[in-house]
Design goal:
Elements lengths: L1 H23 L6 H23 L3 H28 L11 H21 L3 E8 L2 E8 L3 H25 L2 H23 L8 H35 L3 E6 L4 E4 L1 H6 L14 H11 L4 E9 L2 E13 L5 E10 L1 H15 L9 H14 L5 E8 L2 H8 L1 H18 L4 E5 L4 E7 L5 H13 L11 E7 L7 H13 L9 E3 L2 H22 L3 E9 L5 E12 L3 E3 L1 H10 L3 H21 L6 E3 L6 H4 L4
Parallel strand pairs: 11-12, 14-16
Antiparallel strand pairs: 1-2, 3-4, 3-7, 5-6, 6-7, 8-10, 8-11, 9-10, 13-14, 14-15
Length: 611
């Protein structure tokens, strides 16, 4: 009999040892009371093994004391576990300090029994053909027994209460632990007069049951249930296959993508499910990529990731495809890229993208004769003022549509400023007369050209120096336009170096105007005005610019420059003042009947209060 019971004890100790080892690796709050139950359960079984096989009465007495103390603290940890297991703190339900003091006092009393013998005494009895050490209790023992009963009752109340109030998933665990504890209490009560305490195996079973429910079964089942809920609700397809490529699991999102009646197919007509299987079989490693698939003429962009599952020996067990529908994200990015490179009004390239595409076109076609063409609509601001911005926008759209429909051959074109467009094209494809005619037709489609004749100036730069920035090429084409602005008879101009020199000369004159006025470099000459009978009536004011380094500059060299740039009024006001001073001089000389004729530019009406 001792051999059989001893064998059960050894098996129990081995199981408890494994549970203790695995619980040490768990970093959770619940592992603390579980570890306490397991350790004290191990001590209880070990002490009874000592009692079972020792031949010394005093050793059996000491083992009984340690067993009794361990039972108290096992039940305390069980109570702690039953409260912690429901997600609460033990301190919120019981006064742990008072309880620990009571249990400590009881434990000290039990251990002092080895000295005073006031709780129990060990005696030798015979049963089942063997000799066992049993105990005979004194009345004070029932204080210890009451402590044990109270701990069991508190634990059972907590466990049965939670089993009633908890969801079904947790109810089974609470009931299992509570039932095992009830059986232990019953067996322990029945074994009080037996030489062998059969409840010891129950303590071990309870400890293992708690370990399994708290550390193994509940977390794993809850984790599996949570993962299943998450995968069912996740906004991505999960497709799990075995080693042979057969389906093991797919979430609802994957079922939609793998719809057999209306499958997603790639450009070659391969269904998505078959596509995944082919990639699984043809790839030895994990991969992540993006693919385009089609259903009912609609394009879908899918991000597909394959994760291969291997065991500890790196042998393939299966695979998992995670598929995300990034169509909306792809379309959004595509739209953002389009808006970043295109003009929102005309849908042509914007300035930055026109420059970059033109640069690439020039570099890719080193042997072709290319033209950089810029257009400028005359008085476009006045179109907006007279007809409204909607009409102005329609004019720009119409011109942009004309470029898309009528530019032949390879070309790059875009809107590079308000009413300025740029075109890069082969020189042999450019027909000046056709371009002007088609531009006029585009304007007349949305504007009454009889009321307001829209004129489109065209400047052309023949690309000789390909190293120039595209922006400089456009500037040169626009320089050509500056030479014909205001001229209705000529709408197209080609750039040459003379234009650049003239513009530089004009800019120098403009920059020196202010100093020239302040320093009196402009002088008035009077051309006499005579009557028919030879009388002197006055004079016509003529201007000359005496520059300190350039010498005398004739009016024909600077007046057109200042008129074009709106600066002529500064010169005219200066001459008018000189003319008034001359009249004042004549007045003092008694020549009040003399007059001075002065020139008034039509530009003065925009900048000066002539009256």
């Amino acid at each position: 009999m001792k051999i059989l019971i001893g064998t059960l004890f050894v098996i129990s100790l081995a199981v408890l040892g494994v549970c203790i080892y695995k619980t040490r690796k768990v970093k959770k709050e619940i592992s603390r009371p579980v570890m306490g139950v397991l350790v004290f359960g191990f001590i209880i079984v070990f002490m009874h093994s000592v009692i079972l096989f020792t031949s010394y009465k005093w050793v059996a007495g000491l083992a009984y004391s340690i067993y009794s103390v361990s039972a108290v603290w096992l039940l305390y940890n069980l109570l702690d576990f039953s409260i912690t297991f429901i997600g609460k703190k033990t301190e919120d339900h019981v006064n742990t300090m008072i309880m620990q003091l009571v249990l400590a006092a009881d434990s000290i009393s039990i251990m002092l029994n080895n000295v005073f013998g006031h709780v129990f005494v060990v005696r030798e009895v015979s049963a089942f053909g063997d000799t066992f050490y049993d105990t005979m209790y004194f009345p004070i023992y029932y204080v210890h027994y009451a402590v044990i009963v109270l701990l069991i009752l508190f634990s059972l109340c907590s466990l049965y209460y939670r089993s009633v109030r908890s969801p079904m998933f947790y109810r089974r665990k609470y009931l299992l632990i509570a039932v095992v504890l009830t059986i232990i209490a019953a067996v322990n009560t029945l074994s009080m007069k037996s030489p062998v305490d059969y409840s010891i195996i129950g303590y071990a079973a309870e400890a293992v049951c708690i370990y399994y429910c708290a550390i193994v079964y509940t977390p794993q089942r809850l984790l599996s249930k949570t993962i299943l809920n998450v995968t069912d609700a996740m906004n991505a397809a999960l497709y799990v296959i075995d080693m042979e490529g057969n389906k093991l699991y797919s979430n609802p999102y994957a079922d939609q993508l793998f719809d057999n009646e209306d499958p997603l197919c790639d450009q070659d007509g391969t269904a998505l499910m078959e596509w995944c299987r082919e990639r699984y079989k043809s790839n030895d490693e994990e991969f992540s990529g993006e693919g385009k698939f089609f259903r009912n003429g609609n394009e879908f962009v899918l991000k597909i990731q394959l994760q291969r599952m291997v065991d500890d020996k790196k042998q393939l067990q299966g695979g998992c495809f995670v598929i995300q529908d990034s169509t909306e994200e792809y379309n959004k990015l595509k739209k953002e890229m389009y808006l970043a490179s295109h003009d929102s009004l005309t849908a042509l390239y914007n300035k930055e993208h026109f420059y970059s595409r033109s640069r690439r076109f020039i570099e890719e076609n080193p042997d072709r004769e290319l033209l950089m063409i810029c257009t400028d609509i005359k008085d476009f601001k006045m179109i907006n003022d007279f007809f409204g911005t909607n009409t102005g926008d329609n004019v720009l759209r119409a011109f942009g549509e004309m470029l898309r429909n009528h530019i032949k051959g390879d070309a790059v074109y875009g809107r590079i400023a308000n009413d300025i467009f740029g075109i890069l094209m082969d020189s042999e494809d450019f027909d000046e007369n056709r371009f002007v005619a088609e531009s006029a037709a585009a304007f007349s489609s949305c504007l009454d050209t009889n009321t307001f004749p829209a004129v489109n100036y065209v400047g052309i730069y023949e690309i000789k120096d390909r190293s120039l920035p595209v922006s400089v090429m456009c500037d040169r084409a626009r320089m050509a336009i500056s030479t014909i602005k205001g001229d209705y008879s000529k709408l197209t101009a080609y750039y040459d170096d003379t234009i650049r020199d003239n513009i530089r000369y004009e800019q120098e004159l403009i920059s020196e105007l202010h100093n020239a006025v302040n320093e009196g470099q402009f002088r008035m000459f009077l051309q006499p005005q005579m009557s028919a009978d030879g009388r002197l009536l006055g004079g016509e004011a003529l201007i000359r610019w005496f520059h300190p380094t350039r010498g005398q500059i004739m009016p024909g060299d600077f007046i057109p420059v200042f008129e074009k740039n709106g600066l002529i009024s500064e010169v005219d006001k200066y001459i008018w003042e000189l003319a008034c001073k001359q009249l004042q001089i004549w007045k003092h000389e008694g020549k009040e009947n003399m007059s001075v004729s002065v020139n008034i530019s039509n530009k003065d009406f925009f900048y000066v209060d002539i009256y």
